[in-house]
Amino acid sequence: MTNPHKEDTWCPFAKCQNSPMCSPCNRRYLFILATGRSASTTLLKMLNYLPNIRLSGENLNLLYVASKLISNFKGEKVAHLLDQNFDRVEGAYLHNAIPPQVMSCPIQQVINALNPPPQKVQNEVNLTGHPSINDYDQGRILGVKTIRFHKGDWSIREACQFLKDNFPCSRIVVNIRSDVRSQLKSLNSTFSSAQNYAKNEEFVKGMNDFLVGVAGELGTDMARLIDMTEWTKNVEILNDLIHWLGYRDCRYTSIVHENTNGFGRDHETLLNLGKNCHYQGRSEL
């Protein structure tokens, strides 16, 4: 079990069952789990300013959809192929032994496919002197943000175990909006189908409670819980967040305001994290 990123402490907690077919800890990931109208798009934009990070936006709960590649093999009436540690040489379910954690690689590739490099980089791959996609993204931290993680048909423990097993070298930013009354009002004023999405304050609180539970289940090494109600008024909370991630000499001085009054874009707030901003890891912590 080898974790290639243990020294830089992005994921010293990761359990990596390497095999000739898959090395699940090779890629580092960063995920933003949030709910609707909790400034998640602002958070997405601000974290994308960090060096060597590329996060993509909404994806219709792709993490949960990808989890079906695993849960499809679970249950009382299905063949537990992923638990088969021997070669089955005959019968309808003929399969050779499938290594533990091997499904993490195709699941990671689903996420990677929806978070490609810029089109210019893709178009230049076959031109002399330009890097391949693998070379361009060597060492890069990839990820997504989603406001639908809580909507999957899974428990908090099942959702967290999926992340631990299939994205073992990942860090999770869990973002809630504790002022559920304001959040419900914003949902109703922004989305025409809000009544189907968030029926009342108790429903919104339930969404937040699920994410709070996820942060607690993952633990403080892997996950950090932040509250939009607080960090939009105090940028130092985000500076503490990126320090937790392992970035040094980086500092936000202001908050961008994406999706203000619906889906407005902030093209006025300029972010400059400093010329010496870099990822160092958390070895001194």
Average pLDDT confidence is 89
Low-confidence stretches: none
- The proportion of strand residues reads 5-15%
Number of helices: 11
Rg = 20 Å
What spatial order of strands do you see in the largest sheet?
A: 2-3-1-4-5
Please give a structural write-up:
By secondary structure, this protein is an alpha/beta fold. The protein has eleven helices and seven strands. The protein has helices at 40-47, 62-71, 104-113, 119-123, 133-136, 156-166, 180-190, 194-197, 201-218, 228-231, 236-245; strands at residues 29-33, 53-56, 141-146, 170-176, 223-227, 247-248, 278-279. The strands form two sheets. The chain has a five-stranded parallel sheet, with helices on both faces. Strands 6-7 form a two-stranded antiparallel sheet. Helix 6 packs across helix 9 (201-218) and helix 7 (180-190) crosses helix 9. The protein is globular, with a radius of gyration of 20 Å. The two termini are 24 Å apart.
Keywords for this entry:
single chain; 285 residues; alpha/beta; two-stranded antiparallel sheet; 11 helices; 33% helix
Write the layout of secondary structure elements.
Elements: E1 29-33, H1 40-47, E2 53-56, H2 62-71, H3 104-113, H4 119-123, H5 133-136, E3 141-146, H6 156-166, E4 170-176, H7 180-190, H8 194-197, H9 201-218, E5 223-227, H10 228-231, H11 236-245, E6 247-248, E7 278-279
Parallel strand pairs: 1-3, 1-4, 2-3, 4-5
Antiparallel strand pairs: 6-7
Helix pairs in contact: 6-9, 7-9
